[in-house]
Amino acid sequence: MSYIRFDKDQLVNLEFSLTRELLRSNRAGSYACTTIIGCNTRKYHGMLVVPQPQIDGGLHVLLASLDETVIQQNAEFNLALHRFKGDVYTPKGHKYITNFESDPFPTLTYRVGGVILTKEMFFVASADRLIIKYTLVDAHSPTLLRFRPFIAFRNIHAVSKANGNADLSYQEVANGIRMRLYPGFSNLFLQFSKKPEFAYRPDWYFNFEYIREKARGYDYLEDLATPGTFEIPIAKGESIYFVAGLEEADTELFGKMYDHELRHRIKRDSYEHCLQNAAEQFIFHRNKRTEILAGFPWFGSMSRDSFIALPGLTLIQGKVDKFREVLDELITEMKGPLFPNTGSGISANYNSADAPLLFFWTLQQYIRFTGDENVWKDYGLPMKTILYGFRQGVQFNIHMLDSGLLYAGEEGYAVTWMDAVVDGHPVTPRIGLPVELNALWYNAIMFALELARKAGDTEFVNDWESIAAIIPAEFVHTFWIADKKYLADYVHADFRDVSVRPNMIFATSLPFSPIDDDQRKGVIDRVISELLTPRGIRTLAPKNPAYKPEYTGNQAERDWAYHQGSVFPWLLGHFAEGYLKLHEESGVGFITKIYNGMEDVMTEHGIGSISELYDGDPPHKPSGTISQAWSVAEVLRMKWLLEQYKPAKKTKK
Predict the structure, then answer these.
(1) What is the mean pLDDT of residues 245-271?
(2) Given CB 3.0 to 4.6 Å as the disulfide criterion, which of 6, 50, 125, 512 pairs with 446?
């Protein structure tokens, strides 16, 4: 039996099944995504979603969905499900589904009278190609399958509307057709493993309704084009393959493609294997660049997220080469001491003060795993560029004070990870001295000094030793709240923000900490009492008047709640490291319980993965992206940390 499995009672319950989504991707950033019963609820859903660099560089939905109909004795049974304007569900094919299993490939089983049909779907790892395998397990009379594709050809952030500019013509290819709705796009190839009968009846279907976009306050109605239908007879015990891609494929090899992919996949047969499988999906190679996709289905590559996620996605998986590839690509995008927060090239945005300092933490993890003694030689230049640049001052008023602490931020910008903006104004601007930024700053200086001493770089050591020496006392004087035993979130002139937020965790988890053990205990205890949940760490304590218990509503409402109470799983990595450093072996049981508790999310939201965030209040409903890189990476790293602190097994004499 599959590790992730849903039965008929769950699948026919739309309140249950439409909140669980299925994602499959390749190593070029393309993906297929829909709900577990195949009803699209987002504009980001689609069967073939691929980059179109020649259009705008973004991802585009080419094939939105594929309807299947079983025909026996002139009776038709449509297996599809769509929601149309006015809360109308049709044709309600989900009532024929008997079960869903995720392994080895996502498989739906349909029962229509005496017909039992299975549908397996997967994405080819090395090509922009979706494969669906249909197998007629049982039938008592001649059976015909009819397929109707729905075509979009639009950016994932938009919706398609019926128009006269769409080219609904087609050209025949082996066992199928090719189409291109608009000039400049790639061709879409729709092929089968055996020759179908194609009935060309071009048309538009109107007002597909995407309930997730409706709830998020976006345009939620879409019109989709269809070229017509394909019909293929299928015999009992026979399998038919459908392939959608950007290039024509050899139809005689579809079965071999299936077998090849089956042999090379990490099975989703356990909690840890689901995490490892999910981790692979975020690493992609496009335009000769290896990057980390921050989250499916709508985020691109972001340096902050990449640095946080890299150790868990690569080093823990034994992929040191991928670590170096991603890191080296990010360095090529540096602008002075800054990394691009979002975008690349001329579209890059550099308003991230923490990403450059997380670069140092990421390198520390690299040394931890590899023992590489050439880090100063290989990466000393960008490290120096960051430290000297921040010391002298750079954009967004990032500069070192005489105290050795790091100041960052200016009106209208949010330069830390708490960067939500509403109507042009940051929700949590945190201008001044953010606590995690200064913990990272001290850690970066100490790490660089450690490497420089080993490399004999006396000039650098002389430049920074005295600064490093004064920071701990200044840090404690600035941030430590003695009577409450935790750290202020940020300080600006005479103002000290005493809101209980998770950013102080970094002072407990980093290799070099500016606080002592008693202070670290105070921070950890405060996080446990006010911020820790079964799904991660809250961004604000519930007793704070600004606390938002749910992440819901339109974009502005959601952005107000984003860092005002929402729970982020990625923070568990730093919490676990801080806790285990403090409690060592005696803390393993507590962190193990948290790690094991996250297993429940494998059957929620994006099945087999971990969401971007969760509501602050129970039951901590998942939200944001259905699969987030730093969430998966840091939960994997938490598991690795547990292995480092587990007591050694005693051998019998």
Answers:
(1) 90
(2) 512
- Using one digit for the tens of pLDDT, what is the confidence trace for 237-248? 999 999 999 999
Q: Model pTM? A: 0.95
Nearest residue to 108 via CA among 148, 149, 68: 68
Give the DSSP letter of residue 585: G
Which residues lie closer than 8 Å to 13 by C-beta, 6 or more apart? none
Q: What is the rounded CA–CA span in Å between residue 215 and residue 234?
A: 41
Residues 641, 591: contact at Cβ < 8 Å?
yes
Question: What distance in Å separates the CA atoms of residue 45 and residue 152, rounded to the nearest whole number?
Answer: 11
The string over 29-49, giving b where at least 16 C-beta atoms fall within 10 Å of a residue's C-beta and e elsewhere, is bbbbbbbbbbbbbbbbbbbbb
Q: Quickly list DSSP for 79-98.
A: ---EEETTTEEES-GGGGEE
Q: Tell me the pLDDT tens digit for each residue of 413-425.
A: 999 999 999 988 9
In DSSP terms, which residues pair with 97 in a beta bridge? 110
User: 472: cis peptide before it, omega within 30°?
Assistant: no
Between the two ends of the chain, the Cα-to-Cα distance in Å is: 41
Tell me the DSSP string of 223-284: EEEEEEEEEEEE-TT-EEEEEEESS---GGGHHHHHHHHHHTSPP--SHHHHHHHHHHHTEE
**Dist CA 108 CA 123 (whole Å):** 16
Pairing status of strand 20-25 against strand 605-606 = parallel
The helix-helix angle for 571-583 and 588-597 (nearest 10°) equals 160
Please state the φ and ψ torsions of residue 529, each to the nearest 5 degrees: -75, -25
Structure tokens belonging to residue 160: 């398609």
